[in-house]
Structure formats: C-alpha cells, structure tokens
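Feature request, filed as a ticket because there's no other form

It would be nice if the structure record came with a short human-readable summary line next to the tokens. Right now we just get the raw output. Example of a typical job, pasted below so the devs can see what we mean:
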Amino acid sequence: QVQLVESGGGLVQAGDSLRLSCAASGLTISNYGMGWFRQTPGKEREFVKFINYNGASTYTADAVKGRFTISRDNVKNTVDLQMNSLKPEDTAVYYCAVHQTRGLIPSRVKETKYYDYWGQGTQVTVSS
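Raw output as currently delivered:
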C-alpha cells in the first residue's frame, strides 16, 4: 500500500520560511518524478514544483519562482519543499504526489491527472 505523508506546515508571518517534507512508503520514489501542489477552498489544485527521478531537473510554477526549492533524498524516500519569502497568497493545503513517469515533460507535470498517488496534505497559513 502506497502512502505519502506530508509534514512541516504551520502558521507563519509574511516573509518567513517553512520546509515541508513528504515521506513515502510502499513505493520506491527513485523510480518516479515527484510533485508538490497546493489548494485553497473552492479552487482547483494548483501545481507548485516538480522534480525528476534523480533530482537533476525541476520545474516551477511562475507564482513561486525564486522563492521555493524542491529536493529529494532517494535513500530516505523523501521529497522536501523549501519555501522562502512566504506571502499571504501562499496560504493553502500543500500536497505531494507521485508522477506516473521518471522524467520531466512540462505539459504533464503541471496536471493532476498524471499523478497516481497523493498525500493527505499539510496546511500552510501565512499571515500579513
């Protein structure tokens, strides 16, 4: 049984940093690309960042460019999202997900339908 567990969310002030972590079990993530998405009430889940299977390539949503960094540890089976210079508009539930493939195809990494497994999410709230 594949399980993804996100952690590290919380309440911070604008300009602060947070580091989210996603721990996978039941699956070896070294065979897959991994993504982070976020969602606010009433809106569709939004792509944030993607990292390919070996960490050599990443893809970033415009909204977080220059502020968020994605990394992975295939030995620990984890994927992290470092979020700096947080803004109130970053407030959302953040989800990690396992992509269907290893590589980076921009048109496919941004869409939820190309991800097979999802975590339960972790809340990030940024106050102004």
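Something like this underneath would help us a lot:
The radius of gyration is 13 Å.
The mean pLDDT is 97.
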